[in-house]
Design goal:
The protein is of the alpha/beta class. The chain is about 40% helix and about 15% strand.
Length: about 500
């Protein structure tokens, strides 16, 4: 149930190790030297700085010893020559033992100074940057940092963070771990991060956005064979390239059929939310399986949904003997199964679910209570497990799926290990939210998902995904569309402080 979606270059993210390898291959095997790559990166940076600040500005360029410093120097040189900027350079840790390309750029800067360019090499930062400069360029530290920022840089970073003028970080904010999104003691709070070659995974983990500010990608001429990516990020811009989810069927049962096993005594609200969202998203038919005792709740709230009553008498909970009727119905009208919201966690409900999963084919979305049956799910044949999408929130991932994590980076790795072990696809909700398909392709939301953490949102999301899967059977686009659908609805109702899952319907 997987589907391919073309992702723009910005939406594909790599680890620092992947970036370094692409850089090495481009230089050593493809034949574009490092200084040329630095010149291209610097021109990207200069264009962005000019666009954001204007011409004839004064900038403070803070440089360390690595190639980030070279990027900063080259960008300053370009802005001095082409945009009339006054460039003020502080080599924070001295001018010895610089990287080769940084040393080369410093030599070029000195030649420009000799010919009267408005470039100045400072000995210290003794003045208030807010008074003397229009912006700051951070070229202090790169991706190689693996321990807390030492005191010399720490003092400079803290002074930068007290400033109110724009800060442009070269490749990454100094002190930020570009793989994990964690902080090495302290980090620059950039207004803009101009990252080079490939976007970085860590910018979207552990709240790193408060350090990166707006991320810009400066593309470099890495050949395709040199590039490897860790994940893709889900951004609002993808809404413009997602395929349409409009049904083309002639009959309500031709496609887009969603079968829902959900709701039990006291928990019918979850089933109502899931069924409504599947219907609203365009499912051809939504079929809800219910015990007779709960039927009145659905008759009142779901007139557009087909209700199939299972069991006899006034039962309010699912039992294994309900499976026969559900399987017969699903075989007659094949579609997508959504199971779990409010279904209950009893052994009887679990046995029912496992019987249905074992006897029917096709995609299934397992949410909420269905996840407590993970031990039994893991015993299904691998080909069946590859048709399943599990949608836990963080607590369910720990309690039902056995994951153990305390930050986003570990959470992503735990989820990936879980997928490799079980071959089930997973949508691990949280901020950010992760989608990992059965082949371990990873997707990370790159926008704030905290508005969707209230009760009921998960039920709505599950119903929307099920409807999408029923229409096109493509996992990636179905889930991404559902996630962005929630974002769109949130912005439509943003002025409502009581924003809740009903606004998504």
């Amino acid at each position: 149930m997987e589907g391919q979606l073309f992702f723009p270059e910005f939406n594909r993210v790599a680890t620092p190790a992947m970036c370094r390898e692409a850089d090495r291959v481009t230089i050593e095997d493809f034949g574009i030297d490092g200084f040329t790559l630095m010149e291209i990166a610097a021109r990207h940076a200069a264009e962005i700085i000019e666009r954001e600040t204007g011409n004839h500005r004064s900038g403070l360029y803070l440089c360390g010893k690595g190639n980030n410093a070279g990027d900063a120097l080259a960008a300053g040189r370009t802005l001095s020559e082409e945009s009339g900027h006054k460039i003020n350079i502080l080599m924070v840790d001295g001018r010895d033992n610089l990287s080769a390309d940084t040393q080369h750029n410093l030599a070029l800067i000195k030649k420009l100074i000799e010919h009267g360019s408005d470039i100045h090499i400072l000995e210290s930062m003794t003045t208030d940057p807010n008074l003397d400069f229009d912006y700051i360029v951070d070229g202090l530290l790169g991706t190689g940092i693996s321990r807390d920022v030492r005191s010399l840089y720490k003092e400079i970073i803290e002074q930068v963070n007290r400033c109110s003028i724009p800060v442009f970080s070269m490749d990454l904010p100094s002190g930020l771990d570009a793989e994990k999104g964690t902080i090495h003691g302290t980090a620059v709070h950039a207004t803009h991060t101009i990252t080079f070659g490939m976007n970085k995974t860590g910018f979207y983990l552990n709240g790193a956005s408060k350090f990166t500010g707006t991320v810009h990608l400066g593309k470099l001429p890495f050949p395709g064979f040199a590039k490897e990516f860790e994940a893709s990020i889900i951004t609002p811009a993808l809404q413009d390239i997602l395929p349409s989810f409009a049904r083309k069927a002639k009959h309500k049962y031709d496609d887009g059929v969603v079968h829902i096993i959900a709701g039990s005594e006291g928990l019918t609200g979850a089933a109502i939310m899931a069924a409504k969202s599947a219907w609203q998203k365009g499912a051809g038919a939504v079929i809800l399986y219910t015990t007779r005792g709960n039927l009145p709740h659905y008759e009142k709230n779901l007139p557009q949904v087909i209700k199939v009553v299972v069991g006899d008498g006034e039962q309010n909970s699912f039992t294994p003997d309900h499976s026969k009727k559900i399987i017969e119905s699903m075989n007659q009208r094949p579609g997508v199964l959504l199971a779990g919201p409010g279904m209950g966690t009893s052994a009887e409900a679990g046995e029912l679910l496992m019987t249905v999963l074992s006897m029917i084919n096709g995609p299934a979305v397992l949410d909420a209570d269905a996840l407590c049956n993970m031990e039994a799910i893991s015993r299904l044949p691998e080909q069946r497990r590859k048709q399943l999408l599990l949608t836990p929130h963080i607590g369910e991932a720990k309690n039902y799926l056995g994951m153990n994590f305390n930050d986003d980076f570990t959470r992503l790795n735990e989820a990936n290990d879980f997928v490799k072990k079980t071959r089930c696809a997973i949508l691990l909700k949280g901020n950010p939210t992760f989608l990992i398909d059965s082949d371990s392709q990873k997707f990370i939301t790159a926008y704030d998902t905290t508005p969707f953490t209230r009760a009921g949102f998960g039920d709505v999301l599950a119903g929307t995904i099920a409807a999408n899967l029923g229409i096109n059977r493509k996992l990636h686009t179905s889930v991404i569309d559902a996630l962005l659908h929630g974002l769109k609805k949130y912005h439509q109702h943003k002025g409502d402080s009581a924003f809740g899952p009903e606004h998504l319907l």
